[in-house]
Amino acid sequence: MGRTRHDRFDCSPGCAVEATLSLIDGKWKGVVLYHLMSGTLRFNEIRRKLPNVTQRMLTNQLRELEADGLITRTVFAQVPPRVDYDLSERGRTLEPVILALKNWGDVNMPSAGSFAA
Amino acid sequence: MGRTRHDRFDCSPGCAVEATLSLIDGKWKGVVLYHLMSGTLRFNEIRRKLPNVTQRMLTNQLRELEADGLITRTVFAQVPPRVDYDLSERGRTLEPVILALKNWGDVNMPSAGSFAA
DNA sequence: GCCCATAGTGTCGAAAAGGATACCATTGGA
DNA sequence: TCCAATGGTATCCTTTTCGACACTATGGGC
Prior knowledge:
- With 117 residues, the first copy, chain A, is α+β, with helices and mostly antiparallel strands.
- Chain A has a single domain (15-103), classed as Orthogonal Bundle (Arc Repressor Mutant, subunit A).
- In chain A, 48% of the residues lie in helices and 12% in strands.
- Chain A is built from 6 helices and 3 strands; from the N terminus they run H-H-E-H-H-E-E-H-H.
- A 3-stranded antiparallel beta sheet of chain A has the order 1-3-2.
- The two termini of chain A are 30 Å apart.
- The mean pLDDT of chain A is 87.
- At the A-B interface, helix 1, helix 2 and helix 6 of A face helix 1, helix 2 and helix 6 of B.
- The structure holds a DNA duplex (30 and 30 nucleotides).
């Protein structure tokens, strides 16, 4: 389980904002969720899309996303090992959120320009 | 300046997501921005809307939000001291993001129900 | 036997975030 | 003089996050 910045989110109307943020604010989670929006990806496929991420950190973030029910992790019985990651049903409901974040960043953060992937 | 989880956000299409998150992911920032959406608030007004926040932490988060250009801080020459906080023009452009986060939390996080403020 | 591919795990340390507590500054009113 | 209001600041500590580095497991091909 990842970071718990708040213990509870039932305190005031704005808490839902914090509740949602607590699920997606780990380093790399936002960009991972964004890439999974376009379909299934394997561990190394995700990794190659993220500059400078360490294996350790990517594994950790993926495990947290899985634990929070946002992604699914499918292990194949084969060698070399194969693990597929997808957005879960629940994760799919986050698409408007992720797109809102991306749109804002594209427009308002000068160094976050949208490049071809 | 708050936490800098990434140094740069020009690496791939999903970076804009992380760029935006880096501005709003401090503890309390989401809920602060949400409450400022409905208008000017003074320090203690904000504080009273946030359960369990310490003065120290609230001041710190407000200063970061200000430094990132998301809110404005207006100091009045009076006693007792009066400081007003508002969303900046730039901060206002975040409203769709904050609302998307809140909507998702209201629907998907059982303990983040929407209470009357 | 060695190397490759894939997807990790273990361990420890550095850095950052968050928190507790006490204290501060100003004027105005009693 | 003391207390109230407001919005902080200083200091130190605790907790969490992130990163570096090394190592692991499996089968297949040469």
